[in-house]
Amino acid sequence: MTLDGSDSVPALRERKRIPGEIDFSLMYFAHDAFARDLRRMAAAAKAGRAQEPAVRAGWETFKKQLHVHHVAEDEAIWPQLREKATAPDEAAVLDMMEAEHGRIDPLLERIDALLGSGSPELTAAVEEAARALIGHMHHEEDLALPLAQTHLGAAGWSTYVKYLQKTQGLGGAAEFLPWALDGVPPATRKAVLGKLPAPARVLCRLVFEPRYARTPRWTADAA
User: Fold this and answer.
1) Taking the mean position of all CA atoms in its chain, how far away is CA 37?
2) How far apart are CA 217 and CA 58, in angstroms?
3) Whole-model pTM?
């Protein structure tokens, strides 16, 4: 059983492919997973379930994955673009990305504080954070990723990929993959796993996902 989410959390929009060398599908895949967890958290808060251990576990995993995602962008994408995307309107986009990252963490900290107190303000705090993060992801997809396509190309983007591989390693993949695959349609699952080497697909199915499922997230009876 999984939660259906909340209509109060804005949805990510259908995307158009950004022409060029870089395949952004795994970035979109992560963005979809963040939006999914925000819907789950909003639904749990509205239902008065936010104190449940499974909800807390789901929330902690969401925060960890978001931290990894944003640090990797801050360290391995935006600095490269600062060097190459120097037009005033391009610099303004990068300023926006950094400012929005800075606004999101305090909103998550407020949710943590309200989780601890059981405050009825939690639902509004979750919805505010969801609007901020999903709005940021829209801006990133519409404005920043096209800059990466134009100025970085596949070689520059590989710097970001290698940064994640170096800092997260196999242990990071062991959580990221089953977390992001949780609840996706079969076609999405097939497409995502198809981008991985065969050994990684086997590890995901036989090791990563069973290990991840041992900790219930979002709902106490989740498999």
Assistant:
1) 9
2) 4
3) 0.92
Residue 191 lies in a domain: no
- Is there a domain that residue 48 lies in? yes
Q: What is the pLDDT of residues 133-187, one digit of tens each?
A: 999 999 999 999 999 999 999 999 999 999 999 999 999 999 999 999 999 999 9
Tokens of 205: 């199915």
Q: How far apart are CA 163 and CA 41, in angstroms?
A: 30
Q: Which residues span the domain enclosing 95?
A: 25-168
The answer to the question of residue 104 being in a domain is yes
Q: Is 5 left (phi over 0), alpha (psi -120 to 50) or beta?
A: left
Residue at 49 is within a domain: yes
State the Cα–Cα distance between residues 106 and 92, nearest whole angstrom: 22
Distance CA 44, CA 62 (A): 14
Tell me the residue length of the chain: 223
In the block, residue with structure tokens 């400012």: 99
Query: What CATH number did the domain enclosing 125 receive?
Result: 1.20.120.520
Structural domains of the chain, count: 1
